[in-house]
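User: Can you predict the 3D structure for this chain?
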Amino acid sequence: MQKLKTCRLCKSKFRQFSSMVPVCLDCAPAYALEKAKKKRKAKQVEKKRATKLNDRAYLVKRAQFYCNKWVRLRDEGKSCVSCGTTDAKFHAGHYRPTSSSPEHRFNEYNLAAQCPQCNLFKSGNLTEYRKELINRIGLQHVEHLESKTPTQKLDCADLLEIIEYYKGKIKAKENPLDHKGKAG
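Assistant: Here is the predicted structure, written as structure tokens:
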């Protein structure tokens, strides 16, 4: 004698006629509609994801998000690169703006923790930023940032690599024991 099953939808007991259908005969049409709806939604999500993976503007924003998050983690405990305040929720401020130097957008030497006041209202407070940046990374690196370097446009594959690179660095910083060389 076959064991009675409990219907996933109405919770009544029934004899399962197929292992592929975990509901009673009364609920089977509703179950089929729900399953088809989930399948359509999954296809839409996949289509949207595939579109976004080929959307350069979207990928630039995502890469900048992870790069900025990394810079804030890296500079945790340091003061604002421009004014020295330690009393703020920091941004990741660019020394060379991305509008005039897109080639330095993801250059870690070009980014440092900066208070919102300096970053937003003092246009980066660049004179003071430069002085502290020289202390932090050295004059040679600052002069390299200031020199004109050829601009190369990053494609979607490059941006996906940048996103994965910073995700890895963030994960390693946030969970040092979970990343290469586990304790134990």
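Helices lie at 28-53, 56-74, 116-121, 126-137, 139-146, 156-174. The chain has a mean pLDDT of 90.
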